[in-house]
Structures are given as C-alpha cells and as structure tokens.
Design a protein that fits this description.
Strand order of the largest sheet: 4-3-2-1-5-6-7
Number of helices: 8
CATH topology: Rossmann fold
Number of strands: 7
Distance between the termini: 27 Å
Number of domains: 1
Structural class: alpha/beta
Strand content: 15-25%
CATH class: Alpha Beta
C-alpha cells in the first residue's frame, strides 16, 4: 500500500554549512516538492538550509508550513513569507506540531538539532507512536557515518533489522519521495510489551 505524502516534514540546518551542494540539495528538494504539490513542513526560519528550502518551494508556487518557537520568533529569524506559520511555546511542542502536520519525515544535512529531530521521528515510529515513513536525503554521503552506526546497532542487537530496513536513504529528491511512498514500518506490537 502506498503512502499518500501530501505534506513532508524536512529537518535541516539553520546555517548554510561549508559545502555548497548542501544548499543546492535543499533547493532541489524544495523545487521538487513545489512541482509535485507536496507541502513543506519545516522549522520556520529564514536562514540556512531551512531558508533555502522554504524559498525554493515558495518561488516555485508551492506551499510551506513553518513551525517555530516563540524564542526564535522573538529573535527575528522567522520566515515571514510562508503559507502557514505556527508559533509554539517551546521545542517540544514545536516537534509535536511538525509531526502532526506531516505525512513523512526527512533529514537533509544539518547539525545536532537536525539529528535530534530525525532521531525522535525514528524513535516514535519504532515504538508505534506513528507509522509514517522516515528518511535521509544523503547528500554526497553526508549521513554515511550515521547509517554505519545504525548498522552497528543492528549487528550488536540494539536495533532490529526490520526497523533499519524500513528507514529510507536516497541521494536525489525523486528517489527519496518514491521510496517514502512505498516504505512501511514493521508491526511493533510484537516487540512492545
């Protein structure tokens, strides 16, 4: 059964980073989302990869839901041009709102915040809190070390092979969305007691 992805949550860096292809990948994904009528849900700021993907979606006629905190809004980094803006009191409620508005979750390159957000989406899927697909746009192998760590967790008995296999890893926006549409989490009821 295919996943109906009408709204994609993208976790990514709030800085540009040092590699130009990371910005390009954010823009390419944004263009793809706009051209395929998939709403972008993201962290709501106008800076870094976050701003790049939002601007690419908007410039190409797509829709964007920006979810940010009162703290970031007060700092003046909220994107004023998004289709829908949601301002939450704190990071915990921000992540919950992003999950509520999304049909799938993807990480672009980013820092510790990006890693924490996608790890929570994975964790919630693994315990059966949601059954939405989760993936990585693995730009120039950015996530290879993390993928190797996940494989080490499987080899060490801390991560189930079925769960690791459900995680989507792709190098292009087209491949990413195609894989997310057919990805399925295993039934966790047999593991959660």
């Amino acid at each position: 059964m295919a996943n109906d992805i009408r709204s994609l949550c993208v976790y990514c860096g709030s800085s540009d980073g040092y590699v130009a292809s990371h910005i390009t990948a954010a823009q390419d994904l944004g263009i793809y989302l706009a051209n395929n009528h998939i709403n972008l849900v993201y962290g709501g700021t106008a800076i870094g990869l976050m701003g790049a993907i939002a601007n690419a979606v908007l410039t190409n006629g797509g829709t964007v839901t920006g979810v940010t905190t009162e703290h970031f809004h007060a700092a003046g980094i909220t994107h004023d041009g998004v289709t829908q803006s949601v301002i939450t009191p704190d990071m915990h409620s921000r992540k919950a709102e992003m999950m509520r508005h999304s049909d799938a979750f993807v990480a672009l390159p980013g820092g510790i915040g990006t890693l924490e957000e996608v790890a929570e989406a994975l964790t919630w899927a693994h315990i059966g809190h949601h059954g939405k697909p989760v993936g990585f746009l693995n730009v120039n192998g950015f996530y290879n070390p993390l993928i190797q760590m996940l494989d080490q967790m499987v080899a060490s008995g801390f991560y189930r092979r079925e769960q690791r296999d459900a995680l989507v890893v792709a190098a292009t926006p087209e491949e990413l969305i195609e894989k997310l549409r057919v990805a399925a989490w295993p039934d966790v009821a047999k593991w959660v007691r």
